[in-house]
Amino acid sequence: QDDIPSLKDVVPWPFGVAIDERETTGASSQLVTKHFGQFTPENQMKPEAIQPTEGEFTFAAADALMDFAVDNDLRVYGHTLVWHSQTPDWFFEKTVTDAEGVETAVPLSTSAEDQAVLRARMRTHIETVAEHFRTTYGEYGTAGNPIVGFDVVNEVIAESEPDGLRRSEWFRVLGPGYIAEAFEIASEAFNGGDPEGPVALFINDYNTELPAKREAMFSVVEDLLAAGAPVDGVGHQLHVSLAQPIGQIKETLDRFAPLGLLQNVSELDVGIDGTITQEKLVEQGYYYADLFDVLRDYDLSSVTVWGPTDTRSWRSEGSPLLFDGQLQAKPAYWGIVDRAQLP
Ligand code: G3I
After folding, report:
1. What does pLDDT average to over the chain?
2. Residues with CB under 6 A from ligand 1
């Protein structure tokens, strides 16, 4: 690690990595602080991590990462407030009591009363998260508080639906309006309602490089903006493979550019299908080189790789990241730093 260039010094935007507590000590933490200027908590700011039971907020794991950011002068990209996954069932349930006094959890209905319950839960969750990090680390946008952005809604797009919206529990109970509502609440809670506020508010999704998903997301975002929702930016996860044409990624960035929003690459990894060979790892190096050549043309608010090493990846079988399990730089690293170093 000592004798190779820092990735953050060779890319034009803030460079991020998904981490958890394992990256806050030892050699892994040195890798993170050497190569990255920002991180996303991989799981620790998700609803199930922060509010496993209604009204019982657990910020210890998130705060440990926030402390690591403060100590090492790293920016934090929050992930995520409203999602269909890793969100406890209680959000979408109520307790009913039968004639014998037996209590059962049943799904919230679409009655006005149940909708009000879920709306209040959304508000309480977002406001409590925003208030906790403000109280603990100081006002957003001031030294001490490292949070620069947040995924307000995650993976709400489904290109197979006529309106492009995933049929999640949020959608089932509240209908399409829940997305704008989440942004309104987040804007007030993090930025005091100031559209120029310090915490950039994102809609984040995967497969946005594919034309149908891209178009579905584009029209959802267009509608949100037309309705005045305080959306600051679009996050493209970019969980891709070597077979993914880079041209489609470029088409996606070009498609959203006229909207005048921020764009970020939020969860990049490039999986190898089948057996991992040296040849494939070199091919992956060229893929990262070509991809970053394209990305360099865009004024992205950040680019984040979804994990520090292949062994720490959610898709480790595809060895999709820049460093191997021994923390050694792969051809993928050299593809970004210096394609001349590739064989
Ligand atoms: O917390 C439990 C732990 O108590 C238990 O012992 C352990 C046993 O398997 O599981 C732990 O939960 C795991 C959780 O990560 C926290 O580590 C889950 O099994 C595991 O499925 C979960 O995976 C995460 C996944 O999101 C869940 O959807 C991955 O680490 C994380 O990389 C992944 O990230 C998502 C983004 O949030 C959204 N976009 C897609 C991306 C990749 O799936």
Report:
1. 97
2. 42-43, 85-86, 154, 206, 237, 267, 314
